[in-house]
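Fold this complex.
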Amino acid sequence: MTRRRLLFASRRQPSGFGASELRNAERELFLFRRRLMVAGALVVIAFGGLFARFFYLQVLQHAHFQTLAETNRIAIVPIVPNRGVITDRNGVVLAQSYSAYTLEVMPARVASLDKTIDQLAEIVDIQPRDRKRFRKLLDESKNFESLPLRTRLSDEEVARFAVNRYRFPGVEIKARLFRQYPYGEHASHVVGYIGRITDKDIERIGEWEETANYKGSDYIGKVGVELSYERELHGTTGVEEVEVDAGGRAVRTLSRSPPVSGNNLRLSLDIGLQEAAEVAFGDRRGALVAIDPTSGDVLAFVSKPGYDPNLFVEGIDPANWQELNESPDKPLLNRPLRGAYPPGSTIKPFLALSALNSGKRTPQQTIYDPGFFQIPGQAHRFRDDKPGGHGTVDMYKSIVVSCDTYYYILASETDIDETARFMSRLGFGGKTGIDIEGELTGTLPSRDWKRQRFAGKQYREEHRKWYLGDSISAGIGQGYNAFTPIQLAHAIAMVANDGVGYTPHLVKSVQNLRTGEVREVAAQPATHLDIKPEYLAVIKHALAGVNKEGTSAAAFRDAKYASGGKTGTAQVYSLKGEKYTEHKVDERLRDHAWFMAYAPLDQPRIALAVLVENGGFGAQAAAPIARKVLDHYLLGKSDPGAVPLQPDRPSDDESD
Amino acid sequence: MLIFLGRFWEALTRRIDTMLFAVAIGIVGVGLVTLFSAADQSVGRVSTQVASIGFAVILMWITANIPPQTLARVAVPLYVAAVLMLIGVALFGVVVNGSRRWLNLGVARFQPSELMKIAMPIMLAWYFQKFEGRIGWKDFVFAGILIVVPVYLVKRQPDLGTALLIGASGFYVLFLAGLSWKIIVGLFALAAATGPLVWQHLHGYQQERILTFIDPTRDPLGAGYHSTQASIAIGSGGVVGKGWLNGTQTHLDFLPERHTDFIFAVFGEEFGLIGNCLLLILYLVLIARALLITANASTMFARLLAGTITLMFFTYAFVNMGMVSGVLPVVGVPLPLMSYGGTALISLFIGLGVLMSVSAHRKLVTT
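Structure:
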């Protein structure tokens, strides 16, 4: 109320009235100091409150807390949930967890580690590599963690240790969950693997605000579906409140809230088809992606060679790692996602579609092919693969015989930016959005792209400019073009499905074990090509012609279904005008073989892209693989109830 | 030579309030000793902290040499910039951990709510100084708006803790500027009455935090665990403590965040009630000295700013110790001058620098 009086006082006395103002200022200072004293009193009272609390905790309740801290430490022990199971579309298990006994040491409670380990070695089998790995874990671990010394103990070893347990304070047998991939190398690039949680993972977990939920968890998805669906698979950590004795051993459980297992994943993959595809590759390197064009379900996803994900779970040993990492075959490379290859002639049907759409070509329009194409006024000849040429060629024939000259001419008349715009609608130059991480966009050349690609200081303006010659090479899928196998499979699936595209997905549904609720991964059409159906019909008719009377007719002889396809051969090595002879060229520099296909013609159920690295001609190397996969899928060789291959049992010895 | 050194020393220490500085360094020293224990005797963490302290002291010295009226001049631009940045955060801020608190400046991410903590008291102190002698209820309403807008913007990020701290700093200025007791009581009554309404508007995790405070066993792996273990640490310390480097809770890894927000639990466990009392006294002396400087400040602006800084210093200390000892909910507030971390140290020492500046420039302006 003093405040208000003051307010009125200052209102009544206008400023400029010296003495009164001075008095006001003094008065205000007085009031301010009074407020300050009130604040000071509050500070003292608050600190007094804190003192009271400290007194309560440290004097009155001291005995209670001392008991908690010293004699019976109550430990909150997280119970790690079961990681979800990953199955293929027919329920065949591809990744599962099982429980096994491990011998664990808490370094903080052990006086002499070496002595203890030596003594333990008399009871259980401890190999030098176990010691080595334990040392490594010890270096990486935080202070008071319990670290596994031996995993997968036999029942006999468990029993022997139990008898001698009193001799080893700080050493315990624990049941831990291990991850196992029964199919090993098969579909390894899809399923991926889990590994020990690193600092980087901890950061990621923090960003999800899941730090508490990962207490006690040692593993996290690193690659593949294990990585991209980590948060579905992990589950909710349970809690056990236990009394712990001075040695750190749990004496009894006080309360327990059980963990909730992670969700199970059902993949869209058909492991039978996957195996058939992998077998079809033999020892060759390459990639295959098969998609159900009506839903985006990925039916097979091959990256050859693969690797055994079981090696990674417990931390891979240096020898295996070196072998995988340094192999020239790059088994760790996820080729369908991260291998960007020149599309070669597989680009032709798409460019033809683009020409129809823009009105540059009609199906009936013909060109004459003398066996080469020259830019007017230039000496360089862009050669056709057939000496003497294909003669008169219309659009159907250009695809069926894969006539280069037709597309040289088309490219010379088409602006590259316009082509790029159309091709990007088919998904080229962008990510398809498949549900595992690491997808590359490949290269869809355009003027802007070239300018940015060669923006660096070491390049000059003439490097950045787009030339007609660039368009000509790009026009037959060479030059700067580089697409991933998943992009090509996605694009051919879109054409097969009359211009409606689905985002490819490896996971079909997510099942919550506790509620039994099954969540389907939505199969919504993601893109519409928005193109006249008759244009698509022209292209599909030509693709059918390729398998019937064209470049891949031999591979599809006597097929019991009608299919469409297109071969492609992508140059790895520029021969600078020399004629390419396969046997003269080093194996690694041989052309990549492409094939894309879909079937059946009237109602396509499967669309695929195959790439065989350094395979030579697409028709010879890639088309037969596609035929085998289509046969397998369409002719019932993979009926859903089929007994899966006997999965590898977990071996008794260490995985590393 | 000696004379030169003497002159130099004189110039160096002219604006430094010896007592304020000595007590602050005392607390910092206690902090380092505790940190050494909390960090499992790692020298690395302690030396990082020492480097931060050195840097912060230099900033304090610079601030102490800036007259308060210079600060008053930047009040409006600083406040307006902070509000604009908060709006910027709401529109195109970076989302981290589900909260939109950061602005991406290309080089680094910046949290404008931190700037607002400083801008708010400077702005309000400037405002009341400008209208000194003719402050009416309208001014308090206007000041109220100046407080509510940024508090609302920070609250919806959501960052309730920081919003409350910014609100508190604004409220302290109003309180010191003479806001009527009736209104103060009315505000608290209103807050109590609208409590249930506010509860519904809180985010899930905020509700969870408060529930966890009431019943720590609700979240035994998260905040509840911190709270329970910190209480055990302090309580088991007893009157004389377990001795330096001997805290079992600390060293058996039961205590989380023990370098940063929960460092007081380490201190309480190892030095006991006696240590706690000494620390409380150190804080009290620091606050008392700061209040004295505030009381003798020459201008309205200096008074309000110094008073608010003092009360905020108190608020941090009280909230942190209250949270660690289990009488307040777990919010992310560091213990002033003790917790590990450069940012907090820098803002605290700059605050001390402002206090020293207010103290040193008193006579120059009064004439």
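The CA atoms of residues 53 and 261 of chain B lie 17 Å apart.
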